[in-house]
From TrEMBL:
Protein name: Malonyl-[acyl-carrier protein] O-methyltransferase
Ranges where the Methyltransferase type domain occurs: 51-147
Pfam assignment, any one: Methyltransf_11
GO biological process terms held by the UniProt record: biotin biosynthetic process; methylation
Molecular function GO labels: carboxyl-O-methyltransferase activity; malonyl-CoA methyltransferase activity; S-adenosylmethionine-dependent methyltransferase activity
Family: Belongs to the methyltransferase superfamily.
Function: Converts the free carboxyl group of a malonyl-thioester to its methyl ester by transfer of a methyl group from S-adenosyl-L-methionine (SAM). It allows to synthesize pimeloyl-ACP via the fatty acid synthetic pathway.
Alphabetized UniProt keyword annotations: Biotin biosynthesis, Methyltransferase, S-adenosyl-L-methionine, Transferase
Pathway: Cofactor biosynthesis; biotin biosynthesis
Organism of origin: Fulvimonas soli
Enzyme class, first EC level, given as a word: transferase
């Protein structure tokens, strides 16, 4: 399903470098967060443990704590400098905990999370089977997973501008909504619902977009990217190609956002294994007394 791979070390490094100035560039992230919070209305219980994966500077984590002040809220991120910045949003009246860890190896017990939230993080993880497998592992049966991620139409103008200059990989690639949905079902998540929205941000010059991407840490981390330096003449040709998209005096940048939610499966529900078969799991307690004597 996935034909590309991300350099996870580079992803961590980019976000670590961007941490101090991240919130000067996160207007899109805030807008998407507002819509994602609406998905939480489907969860009608009082959660005990809420996990924010890819919490960044903690704005979303603070909103989760405000929504559920009695719950334990964990802000988890791969980049430690992001979590240091998140300290500013963890107020003493409504504090949340910060954990530096990888979404592919969540440091939590099985079936311990009531709500797993993630805003624009999953696009930086190329192994969806492992990612959703971890989500299923830590979610309680009937727990809510709600997340947003980028779709393949994201930054299509920038991708086309670079393609007019050379055939090298300059812009990250993102998975289609149907691939994401298939991975959710394969992991055993129940009743997934996915929607797509498109946002268009505009800039005075293409260079302003590139500055914003760097400020967000959202720069190219595909393992297949070119390793050589991009020359000034090469760069200027890309900027000139981007000018073809100028409209009403502004340069557009498209962002395709996939928003989804699903539910943790009941104990024993089968999920697809990597070899194509199905795997079911049961707690030891549920098997006690089932043996014939």
């Amino acid at each position: 399903m996935n034909e590309f791979h991300l350099d996870r070390t580079l992803v961590r490094r980019h976000f670590a470098r961007a941490a101090a100035g991240y919130e000067r560039h996160d207007a899109l992230q805030r807008a998407v967060q507002e819509g994602l919070l609406g998905r939480l209305d489907f969860y009608l219980e009082q959660p005990r443990l809420v996990l924010d994966v890819g919490a960044g500077t903690g704005r979303g984590s603070a909103l989760l704590k405000k929504r559920w002040p009695q719950a334990q809220v964990l802000a988890l991120d791969l980049a430690l400098p992001m979590l240091r910045e998140a300290r500013r949003h963890a107020g003493w009246l409504k504090p949340f905990q910060r954990v530096c860890a990888d979404a592919l190896a969540l440091p939590l017990p099985d079936h311990s999370v009531d709500v797993l939230h993630s805003n624009l993080c999953f696009q930086w993880i190329d192994d969806l089977a492992a990612l959703f497998g971890e989500c299923v592992r830590v979610l309680r049966p009937g727990g809510l997973l709600a997340f947003s991620t980028f779709g393949p139409d994201t930054l299509r103008e920038l991708r086309a501008a670079w393609a007019a200059v050379d055939a090298r990989s300059h812009v990250g690639r993102f998975l289609d909504m149907h691939d994401v949905g298939d991975a959710m079902i394969a992991a055993g998540l129940r009743d997934p619902v996915l929607d797509v929205d498109r946002y268009t941000l505009t800039y005075s010059e293409p260079a302003e977009l590139l500055k914003e991407l760097k400020g967000l840490g959202a720069t190219h981390a595909d393992a297949a990217r070119g390793r050589g330096l991009t020359g000034k003449a090469h760069y200027r040709r890309m900027l000139a190609a981007y000018e073809e998209f100028r409209s009403d005096g502004r340069i557009p940048a498209t962002w395709e956002v996939v928003t989804a939610h699903a539910w943790g499966p009941p104990p024993g529900q089968a999920r697809r294994g990597r070899g194509g078969g199905e795997i079911a799991s049961f707690s030891v307690d549920s098997l006690r007394g089932s043996r014939r004597r």
